[in-house]
Amino acid sequence: MVLVKAGRTKIRYPARLLADDGTRLVVRAPWAGDAARDFGFVRFERGDVFTEYYWRDRWYSVKEVRDPAGALKGWYCDITRPAVRSGRELVVEDLDLDLWRSADGADVRRLDEDEFAASGLAESDPDAAAAAVAALDALELLAREGGFERLLD
After folding, report:
1. Within its chain, how far is the Cα of 30 from the centroid?
2. Which residues of 82-115 are buried (b: 16+ CB within 10 A; e: fewer)?
3. CATH number of the domain residue 125 falls in
4. pTM
5. CA distances from 153 to 19, 45, 74, 142, 148 (A)
6. What are the residues whose beta carbons fall under 8 Å from the beta carbon of 121, sequence distance 6 or more?
């Protein structure tokens, strides 16, 4: 996995390919951070397992997060350009917007809208910025209205 942000590689980590139907790719990977990361509403830490869903035709990815015992923590969604598979690597460009949905669905929150605004994407690539905002709106609606799990089936 290669996550690119602002034209540079943000993180590269190993993941196991579970499925690729030509449109959607699914990979599984352990938490790739060096240390635990506490967001206040969820904590990612060593031993957490991420099942990550990417699309070649959608402007987002969805990561199902489970603790080491297998209990679902929730879903962390990145707004991205459509994924590109290049040889053995899956490359995704992060566009700063994110969404969190807790396991019980009670907590759905938009994240990093300030980073997105500061990125300058709306000025440098207005079409991409509009696609990113539309993707965030669509994901939030799915997360709030119960269609989220069907997205991943």
Report:
1. 14
2. bbeeeeeebbbbbbbbbbbbbeeeeebebbbeee
3. 2.40.380.10
4. 0.95
5. 12, 26, 15, 13, 9
6. 95, 96, 128, 129, 132
Question: What six digits make up the tokens of 73?
Answer: 């923590």
Domain that holds residue 8: 2-152
Tens digits of residue pLDDT in 53-64: 999 999 999 999
Which of 9, 87, 1, 124 shows the shortest CA–CA distance to 51? 1
- Name the nearest CA neighbour of 73 among 98, 51, 97: 51
Rounded Cα gap, residues 26 and 92, in angstroms: 13
The C-alpha atoms of residue 82 and residue 29 are separated, in whole angstroms, by 20
pLDDT tens digits, residue range 90-124?
Answer: 999 999 999 999 999 999 999 999 999 999 999 99
CB-based contacts of 11: which residues, under 8 Å, 6+ apart? 1, 2, 3, 32
Distances (CA, A) of 135 to 130, 141, 147: 9, 10, 15
How many distinct structural domains can be found in the chain?
Answer: 1
